[in-house]
Amino acid sequence: MATHSSSLYVCMSSRKPNATMLTVLSARAGGAPPPTLFFGIGSKRKCWNFKPFRIWAGKFPDFLPKQVENIKDPFARKLASRIERLPVNFSKGCVMSSCVKPKEQTEANPVVLLHGFDSTCLEWRYALPLLEEAGLETWAVDILGWGFSDLERLPSCDVASKRDHLYQLWSTYIKRPMVLVGPSLGSAVAIDFSVNYPEAVDRLVLIDACVYAEGTGSLATLPKALAYAGVYLLKSIPLRLYATSLTFNGLPLNTCIDWTNIGRLHCLLPWWEDTTVNFMISGGYNVIDQIQHGPHTNFLADHSSRIAAD
């Protein structure tokens, strides 16, 4: 990691963390609500027991695919009703960028939630209300190329563009060092961003981090026709339904279908195939050197995953 004062805290699984970790629980594309939220630094860890929230579905923004009306999950419906688009000017032009803004501003540094590969801010539908109830100023931001931003003009969605876009969003609207949270590939996004813009990041939180992949590998050299065919398969309901059922073993079929629809909602936007192929052939994220060359790096293992803590 770069030589700056940012600290890195890691949550690698849903197991109860030790006292040196700061834990934020996320619901990935259809994740079940966690029973407990642990949040703290060092020994000053606090625990909030999960309890029911009063959830209602407000009017959905008109830029969301109309299929949002078919979603049953009340947490997803509530969060979807809060998604808005903010203008972000960056090197590739102006993009109306989708996010969920905080309900209120606090004195503490804000928490900014990224998402994983090919996903949206709806990953955080269970965790974000808990963070807000804990008094944290919380953003959920869609990474350029995914989510519900207006990408009709098809800006480049390579790593440099994603980084620049996030920085311009931060410098325009957030403007304070943030606790940047990245699950899965979002961890690579967070590491890459913090190394290049250390002034913007107070702490990193990496969840089930995917940070040792060497980019998109051979996918970057695929002929475009094959790349589009692969992306079309990625969008398919059977594949996503199968993946959801594997991830959440024993989930009732109707819930599994609903969470699948939540996870693929952004795929129904007309530019999704183009932006996903653009990222694929750009080479993707390779942050290995940014981790290994940093000082005071510790490695923790969770099954096949390795996560670095600075």
Give a written overview of the molecule.
30% of the residues lie in helices and 20% in strands. The chain is an alpha/beta fold. This is Alpha/beta hydrolase domain-containing protein VTE7-like isoform X2. It comes from Nicotiana tabacum (Common tobacco).
Arrangement of strands in the largest sheet: 1-9-8-6-7-5-4
* Elements, N to C (H/E): EEEHEEEHEHEHEHHHHHEE
Note the gap between the termini.
7 Å
Largest sheet: 7 strands, mixed
- Helix fraction, binned, reads 25-40%
Cα shape: globular
Average residue-wise pLDDT: 80
Unreliable runs, pLDDT <50, ≥5 residues?
A: 1-57, 293-310
Number of helices: 9
Strand runs, count: 11
Beta content comes to 15-25%
Q: Cα-atom Rg, whole angstroms?
A: 18 Å
Structural class: alpha/beta
Brief summary of the model shown:
With 310 residues, this protein is α/β, with parallel strands linked by helices.
Secondary structure blueprint with pairings:
Layout: E1 7-11, E2 36-41, E3 44-49, H1 74-82, E4 84-90, E5 93-100, E6 111-113, H2 127-133, E7 138-141, H3 159-174, E8 178-183, H4 185-196, E9 201-207, H5 224-235, H6 237-247, H7 253-263, H8 272-282, H9 288-292, E10 298-302, E11 305-309
Parallel strand pairs: 1-9, 6-7, 6-8, 8-9
Antiparallel strand pairs: 2-3, 4-5, 5-7, 10-11
Features:
310 residues; 9 helices; 11 strands; disordered C terminus; alpha/beta; 7-stranded mixed β-sheet; 20% strand; Alpha/beta hydrolase domain-containing protein VTE7-like isoform X2; two-stranded antiparallel ribbon; disordered N terminus; single chain; globular
